[in-house]
UniProtKB/TrEMBL annotation:
Organism of this sequence: Phnomibacter ginsenosidimutans
Entry similarity comment: Belongs to the SecY/SEC61-alpha family.
GO biological process: intracellular protein transmembrane transport; protein targeting; protein transport by the Sec complex
CC per GO annotation: plasma membrane
Membrane topology: Multi-pass membrane protein
The protein's name: Protein translocase subunit SecY
Task performed by this protein: The central subunit of the protein translocation channel SecYEG. Consists of two halves formed by TMs 1-5 and 6-10. These two domains form a lateral gate at the front which open onto the bilayer between TMs 2 and 7, and are clamped together by SecE at the back. The channel is closed by both a pore ring composed of hydrophobic SecY resides and a short helix (helix 2A) on the extracellular side of the membrane which forms a plug. The plug probably moves laterally to allow the channel to open. The ring and the pore may move independently.
Keywords: Cell membrane, Membrane, Protein transport, Translocation, Transmembrane, Transmembrane helix, Transport
């Protein structure tokens, strides 16, 4: 405990780190305040009956938006349109040669792609805003609409939702530039954590009610949740190391190379992206259905505990894991870089044989990683089937838990880097904290 207090003091004594923490907290608080501002034309008092009642994929969307979706807030769409646009642009820059050239132009190319991403975010937000307006006109929310404001409701809502998403996007960029950690990831994590106390209390109340199982069952659930988190940390940080040797070079009187290093192949190289891709694909029919989930097929897609949903979801996650890993991981490029720097894998010829070897190792490592990722994705539905309340079950796995674990690891890694740079002790005595920064350059880390 004494060491922990000393570490906190060290963190606060570093001026740069203290400023980053203050800026990050101020911007996150601003975001949380914005989620409670209700759209014009809606009576906030009439929303009490439907607040927090969204379930399935809409519940997940609401969780990412920090509850703003169900509260009909001006930030109801949150950061998700920007993430969708960023993912699309990231794939385009990898798959389209013209965009690859622009990306390689350096800072100017990056600014162009960022600007196009913002334009695409506006288009995505306007499209989703139209669907959200239809959702607000459904039973439950329709009663909260103020009749006198109805002629202006559609246009004002589209403008405000678009402005709200752009504001959240700006907050995320400012946190990344001036604060601590990845801004977009932190905004999503804060939205998820905002619902944890309420979900925790609901689960505790449910277990203490008649026939709920009592405190013992609740303690067992907490123990299982802690075990799942520990397993996720292993999944996020797990690597398969390939030994790399570098040939000795003598220049003048100095010797270079001859060192032995390792090429780390992550078990989960794709990070949380396959789960987000899978949920995005499943969510598309919901958007085209104007958020109407009453149909039989839509009920399956919005029920996490449904067996068919789990099967479809698992297949999509495994498929996208291999697809995204193949996109971001290029064995041929790695083999060329090794050859250029006089590096080689012991027992493997340089060039194409090295690329084939790295590719085969990557495939073998990706398979268990993909299966574990799919299992993590369906854990909330499994927990719900076993009697855990809907809100609390979402913390047993899926995107929510993966993002929280990954973002916390990344943030702690940045804090530890600042401490070690100034010759303070790190946060861990058993070794350095590893984050996900080398995994992906996507907006969610």
């Amino acid at each position: 405990m004494k060491k922990f207090i000393e570490t906190l003091k060290n963190i606060w004594t570093i001026d740069e780190l203290r400023q980053k923490i203050v800026v990050t907290l101020a911007l996150l608080i601003t975001y949380r305040l914005g989620t409670h501002i209700v759209l014009p034309g809606i009576d906030p008092n009439a929303l009490e009956a439907v607040k927090g009642k969204t379930t399935g994929l809409l519940g997940l969307f609401d969780q990412f938006a920090g509850g703003a979706f169900s509260q009909a807030s001006i930030l109801a769409l949150g950061i998700m349109p920007y993430i969708s646009a960023s993912i699309f642009m990231q794939l385009v820059t990898i798959l389209v040669p013209q965009f690859q050239k622009i990306q390689k132009e350096g800072e100017s190319g990056r600014k162009k792609i960022n600007q196009w991403t913002r334009y695409l975010t506006v288009l995505v937000t306007v499209f989703q805003a139209g669907a959200y307006i239809t959702y607000l006109q459904s039973p439950g929310y329709k009663e909260a609409l103020i009749p006198a404001y109805e002629p202006f409701f559609v246009i004002s809502t589209i403008i405000l939702l678009t402005a709200g998403t752009l504001f959240v996007m700006w907050l995320g960029e400012k946190i990344t530039d001036k604060g601590l950690g990845n801004g977009t990831s932190l905004i999503i994590m804060v939205g998820i954590l905002a619902r944890l106390p309420q979900s925790f209390l609901q689960e505790f109340t449910a277990k203490n009610s008649k026939g709920g199982g009592g405190v013992l069952v609740f303690i067992i659930e907490i123990a299982i949740l802690v075990a799942i988190i520990m397993g996720l940390i292993v999944l996020v940080q797990g690597v398969r190391k390939i030994a790399i040797n570098y040939a000795k070079q003598i220049v003048g009187n100095k010797q270079f190379g001859g060192a032995r290093q390792f090429l780390p192949i992550k078990v989960n190289s794709a990070g949380v992206m396959p789960i987000i891709f899978a949920q995005a694909i499943i969510f598309i029919p919901t958007i085209f259905a104007k958020f109407d989930t009453t149909g039989d097929f839509m009920k399956i897609l919005n029920d996490h505990s449904n067996g068919w949903y789990m099967l479809i979801y698992s297949v999509l996650v495994i498929g996208f894991t291999y697809l995204y890993t193949a996109i971001i991981f290029n064995p041929k490029q790695i083999a060329e870089d090794l050859k250029r720097n006089n590096g080689f894998i012991p027992g493997v010829k340089p060039g194409q044989p090295t690329a084939d070897y790295i590719g085969s190792v990557m495939d073998k490592v990706t398979l268990p990683g993909a299966i574990l990722l799919a299992f993590v994705g369906i854990l909330p539905g499994v927990a719900q089937k076993l009697g855990v309340t809907g809100g609390f079950s979402s913390f047993f796995g899926g995107t929510s838990l993966l993002i929280m674990v990954g973002v916390i690891l990344d943030t702690l890694q940045q804090i530890e880097t600042h401490l070690l740079m100034r010759q303070y002790d790190g946060l861990m005595s058993g070794g350095r904290i590893q984050g996900r920064q080398a995994v992906s350059s996507s907006p969610i880390g």
